[in-house]
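Same chain as my last thread, 328 residues:
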Amino acid sequence: MTLSRRRLLSHATLAGAALASSGLPLAALAQGGKTLRILVGFPPGGGSDAIARLLADRLKDVLGVPVVVENRPGAGGQIAAQVLKTSVPDGNTLFFTHDHTISILPQVVKHPGFDPAQDFIGVGGVATFVNAFAVSGGTPARSFGDYVAWVKAQGGKSAVGIPAPASTPEFLVKLVGERFKLDLVSAPYRGSAPMMGDMLGNQIAAGVGSVPDFLENHRAGKLRIVAVLGEQRQAALPDVPTFGELGLKGFEDLPYYGFYAPAGTPARAVQQFSDALAQVLARPDVREHLVALGLTVTPMTPQQLATRERAYTQAWTRIIQASGFQPQ
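reply #2:
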């Protein structure tokens, strides 16, 4: 073997070793840096989309491959989940979602078209968050008590927007109505962005969604968050009471955001993405941005995400059964 041939093989070996330790998904290595696709089950402009795009922008730097967000809105994330199920399990397609699609939707829809326990693998958790009750600028309410009084003055009946049917917000609307003796009707939307559009246009008086969905417009004075779920007030909303303070218990367990891959995705690809995600979430600028969106940054390994998912699913099984809700 010639000297130049030996050098060429040596360089190739070193390059291969560098790639093997780079943290790229297996398919990206094998297929020359194929784009990593992140599915989001809600339209652009909502909280889930904003978080996914922030993380995608940082992940491309860590992984060294293009990372794109693909919105597949509809049915509370059900459509995106079905796309994930049928995707090739090569590490190049992931699903970024929150608790509703994974822990709640399969319990309230008869034929969701996927089973998280069988069809998905959790690859990393991002954060926990709380849902909030907000009123539009077209109402005179400045507090939740004001809202209750206003609805009663209107005859006791009002519509409340929710980003998806049979979701945490819908159950909250039902229990709020029962607790405060109001006839509240859930108005489902195809995600939080169109719901907020109607709230900002004063087409609907109130809505329930995640704090990240509402926070920017709350700060701008275009709508008002008047109550939040969870055990304690949010750092981003220190003057807003929890529903526990207002007398409505049972919603203390916090929902979560996480990434999922199709079942059968190689364990090494799962671990490599989890490690890359942990690096991104450790960056001060990313953490500050997520906190500003109203999230509590909670990095989770695949195992920790699975534990969180099981606990949250069990909590919501009790709430759903107690409500008498029948799968539709």
